[in-house]
């Protein structure tokens, strides 16, 4: 009975990949004369060779395609020989079709073959053709066929090989106007020949017709020049340190503020979420799997990687062509669980992200597992492979993490370790008559610039620390001396100096808010965002500190800081203990 089952050849006899060597060395009419004992290590079965090369079963004559391929070069000969081997056995066609994990790539697994020797022979042959790296004893082998389709120009010759394979199944080219029999391509798609090469039907047909087929690349994207209105405070904080916590009462617009910024800087007018992941944090998170995924050993085909929105954003952010686009990870109600537990990997890695030797947050081994899991689409796979070449996924300069927090009986407080690494912006709400029913950025905080300029501010690596300001240094020293056990270290000082430089750069734009760079305004924001958030304790810990800070002459012009210090001092009376977030 005709059909795909007619395609079969011995796959347990080792060395069939050496057929390529014979094609390189001899014209087709001399190949069968050299398959036994002429060359060291070459001892092939004639029927096997004839079958693989689609020769005539009676005359043993091999088709002229094997002479046609020789002038192309050795790599092309090996690629076409691989195609011939693949389509010589129905089991191989089915196995490769099932093994694809993405565009032009797949994972061949030992347990997919009924005979272990067949797996070993195929894997070794693929390695000899440059398609994979085979490790003896490994339960699987990752392979990529991209080089077969790019710039080899062998598609039309492959079509001749596949045409003869189809004829072996009993298929014949239908006559004109015959609507009852499949055409060449219809029969190929029926047998999933395109899946065996991990191609789409369109790619398969294009390649066989002589066109180069490339792996799909991510689309070109850039931040537009459209004018936007965003929060100057938020932009300044993120440009100084790419980890910001927005705190305030429920309904004050914290989530709206950061989503508005992310949407304003989106490179895609179609999908405004193309540059951010919105993660609602849930109570009970105890590790990083909800953000960075995890390995699951119980998949259908063994271990696989369960991935997340965060990984999707990191893949984009690490892609070289997207380095000028800001990407945001938004952790909504991030203190519903202990931040130190589920966010610890980020807290550790972000300290090395700007060094000369940054550590990846996702390593190459994990990226390889993602590719094997078949969870990535063609564009994501391209990004993952690019990341592997760079040593993994990093918290690159264009990645910004923003958490929103409410403080009530359902949430957890922040440790100094978290607050020390973040800028904290308190969102307050004015009278209803000032803002109506919708969230609006106040005029004193509104930064109006082209979106591309805002993106440049956020990502810019050339913002050096502000020039030494003796008056500001004296003020900072005075705050330090009066902070008691809440004194800040060099990390905070460095980030404050960068913040001052960022503020000056923002103020240079015509669209910046009035008075944004006034010394008193800058000092007020520095204290509120970097120093006071760690204040937390009882009367004996905080009472004297608050009084001494309030007694400073320089505090009189810092309205928000004074209001916060007085609020905390007043809270110590009835409560006995208080924090910045109370």
From TrEMBL:
<protein>
    <recommendedName>
        <fullName>AAA+ ATPase domain-containing protein</fullName>
    </recommendedName>
</protein>
<dbReference type="InterPro" id="IPR003593">
    <property type="entry name" value="AAA+_ATPase"/>
</dbReference>
<dbReference type="InterPro" id="IPR027417">
    <property type="entry name" value="P-loop_NTPase"/>
</dbReference>
<feature type="domain" description="AAA+ ATPase">
    <location>
        <begin position="240"/>
        <end position="429"/>
    </location>
</feature>
């Amino acid at each position: 009975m005709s059909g795909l089952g007619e395609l079969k050849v011995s796959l347990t006899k080792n060395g069939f990949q050496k057929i390529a060597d014979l094609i390189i060395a001899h014209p087709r009419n001399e190949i069968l004369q050299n398959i036994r004992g002429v060359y060291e290590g070459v001892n092939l079965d004639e029927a096997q060779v004839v079958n693989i090369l689609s020769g005539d079963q009676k005359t043993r004559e091999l088709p002229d395609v094997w002479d046609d391929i020789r002038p192309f070069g050795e790599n092309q000969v090996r690629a076409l020989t691989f195609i011939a081997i693949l389509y010589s056995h129905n089991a191989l066609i089915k196995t490769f079709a099932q093994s694809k994990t993405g565009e032009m790539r797949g994972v061949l697994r030992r347990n997919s073959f009924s005979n272990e020797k067949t797996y070993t022979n195929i894997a070794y042959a693929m390695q000899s053709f440059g398609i994979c790296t085979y490790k003896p004893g490994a339960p699987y082998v990752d392979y990529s066929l991209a080089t077969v389709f790019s710039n080899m120009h062998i598609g039309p010759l492959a079509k001749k090989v596949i045409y003869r394979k189809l004829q072996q199944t009993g298929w014949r080219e239908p006559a004109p106007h015959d609507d009852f029999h499949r055409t060449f391509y219809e029969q190929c798609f029926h047998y999933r020949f395109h899946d065996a090469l991990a191609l789409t039907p369109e790619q398969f047909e294009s390649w066989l017709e002589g066109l180069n087929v490339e792996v799909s690349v991510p689309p070109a994207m850039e931040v537009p020049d459209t004018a936007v209105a965003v929060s100057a405070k938020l932009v300044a904080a993120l440009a100084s340190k790419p980890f910001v916590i927005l705190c305030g009462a429920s309904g004050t617009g914290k989530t709206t503020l950061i989503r508005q910024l992310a949407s304003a800087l989106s490179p895609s007018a179609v999908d405004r979420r193309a540059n951010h992941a919105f993660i609602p944090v849930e109570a009970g998170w105890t590790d990083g799997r909800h953000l960075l995924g995890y390995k699951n050993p119980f998949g259908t085909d063994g271990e696989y990687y369960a991935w997340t929105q965060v990984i999707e954003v990191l893949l984009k952010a690490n892609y070289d062509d997207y380095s000028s686009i800001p990407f945001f990870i938004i952790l909504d109600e991030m203190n519903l669980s202990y931040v130190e537990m589920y966010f610890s990997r980020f807290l550790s890695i972000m300290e090395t992200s700007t060094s000369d030797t940054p550590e990846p947050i996702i390593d190459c081994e994990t990226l390889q597992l993602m590719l094997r899991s078949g969870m990535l689409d063609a564009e994501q796979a391209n990004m993952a492979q690019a990341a592997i070449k760079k040593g993994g996924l990093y918290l690159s300069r264009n990645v910004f993490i923003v958490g929103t927090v409410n403080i009530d009986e359902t949430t957890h407080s922040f440790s100094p370790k978290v607050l020390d690494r973040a800028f904290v912006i308190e969102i307050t709400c004015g009278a209803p008559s000032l803002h109506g029913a919708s969230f609006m950025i106040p005029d004193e905080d509104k930064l109006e610039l082209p979106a591309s300029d805002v993106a440049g501010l956020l990502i810019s690596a050339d913002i050096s620390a502000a020039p030494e300001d003796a008056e500001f240094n004296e003020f900072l020293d005075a705050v330090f001396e009066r902070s008691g056990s809440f004194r800040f270290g060099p990390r905070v000082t460095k980030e404050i100096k960068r913040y001052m430089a960022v503020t000056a750069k923002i103020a240079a734009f015509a669209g910046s808010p009035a008075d944004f760079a006034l010394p008193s305004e800058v000092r007020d924001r520095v204290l509120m965002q970097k120093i006071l958030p760690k204040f937390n304790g009882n009367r004996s810990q905080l009472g004297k500190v608050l009084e001494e800070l309030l007694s400073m002459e320089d505090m009189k012009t810092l309205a928000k800081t004074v209001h916060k210090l007085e609020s905390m001092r007043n809270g110590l009376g009835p409560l006995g203990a208080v924090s910045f977030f109370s």
